[in-house]
Amino acid sequence: MIDKSKWPGTNLRHALVACAAPAVFVMISVPAFAADPNIRLSSPVGCKIGGICTIQNYVDRDPGPGAKDYTCGRLVYNGHKGTDFRLPDASWLKHNVAVLAAAPGKVMGTRNDVADHAPDQYDPNRNKGRECGNGVLIDHGGGWRTQYCHLRKGSVSVRKGDRVSRRAALGIIGLSGKTEFPHLHFSVKYKSKVIDPFLGVGAKAGCGVKGKPLWEPSLLSDLTYRPSGVLSSGFTDKVPTTKQVVAGQHRHKRLSRNAPNLLFWVMIFGLQPGDTEVLRILGPDGRLFVRKKSPAARKHMVRRFTYSGKRNRRPLAPGLYRGEYLLMRTKEGRRIVALKTTAGVRIE
């Protein structure tokens, strides 16, 4: 999530979201690569897109004060200039998910000293002028540049002037700069203009327009647009908060029979107006332990967190409890299951 950065040609004082003092990024000439009007981008993250990694925000295609992604969907916020590849929650940071060069080129600037913060604990005053956090800027020649933001402090493995190959490791996804959740903010520019990699150069303004994606053809199936998806789910014995869940807490596989509560929670992206949610917990004998159905959603939510359960007034029966979540949506006049997920916890 970002970004209000300026990419003024070769003025690298501002190349990483005004990220450093003038003494660090000096005026230099653009390297003379051969022009490539048909650049092809590989995945900038070392994880399965649509699996572990999810695209939560796209480039904003609405020229006005509203926000729409390239499909005219709402996985975006006003003024967003890149594509956000997120991890489910902060517990995945320990897996050291790599940030990769999307195309060969020359490193034009880096930053590697911004401290990571806890989820939803971004301090705008502390990071003013360093919204990208730790990052890398690469020139691919022919007017093409890519920028990689929110890397982990100390993980950036390239330096200014390095030549990098496609899929070369640049660093590790982190929580630095202006971000509320662990992700890579990946942005593309052609001749100083923001380019939506799902439409390419020459696409008309607005959403729902035709274009030529910049991604490698082998990636397109993984990059299929998903208007909604499950980020994470689990069981806990305490009332959870969004912040705690994004931090990777409340994911118990086992709980005591004397646990004060038994709660099943789910976090999704892409809640749409009219959607309803159903959460159920089934006991070891298959009987319904608790059920909750939400009223129809009134507005779109990029991220949605919900839970249901019971306070336990007596010891729980031992065995495996199962949580089930359904997101119901109207499509072409029919009510369908748009999302479904399950989780389990063993009571001992």
- What is the C-level CATH assignment of the largest domain? Mainly Beta
What is the overall pLDDT average?
A: 89
Order of helices and strands: EEEEEEEEEEEHEEEEEEE
Q: Give me the secondary-structure category.
A: mainly beta
What's the CATH topology name of the largest domain?
Answer: Glucose Permease (Domain IIA)
Largest sheet: 8 strands, antiparallel
Q: Terminal Cα separation, in Å? A: 41 Å
The domain tally reads: 2
CATH architecture of the largest domain: Distorted Sandwich
Overview of this protein structure:
The protein has 348 residues and is mainly beta. The chain folds into 2 domains: 54-219, Glucose Permease (Domain IIA) (Distorted Sandwich); 229-347, Sandwich (Immunoglobulin-like). It has one helix at 242-246, and strands at residues 54-57, 83-86, 98-100, 105-111, 134-141, 144-151, 163-164, 169-172, 183-190, 193-194, 229-236, 254-255, 261-271, 276-282, 288-293, 301-311, 319-331, 334-347. Strands 1, 2, 4, 5, 6, 7, 9 and 10 form an 8-stranded antiparallel sheet that branches. The chain has a 5-stranded mixed sheet with strand order 12-18-17-14-15, with no helix packed on it. Strands 11-13-16 form a 3-stranded antiparallel sheet, with no helix packed on it. Strand 14 and strand 15 form a beta hairpin. The longest helix is centred in the last third of the chain and has 5 residues, at 242-246. Keywords: Signal. This is M23ase beta-sheet core domain-containing protein. InterPro entries: Cell_wall_metabolism_enzyme, Dup_hybrid_motif, M23ase_b-sheet_dom. Residues 79-197 form the M23ase beta-sheet core domain.
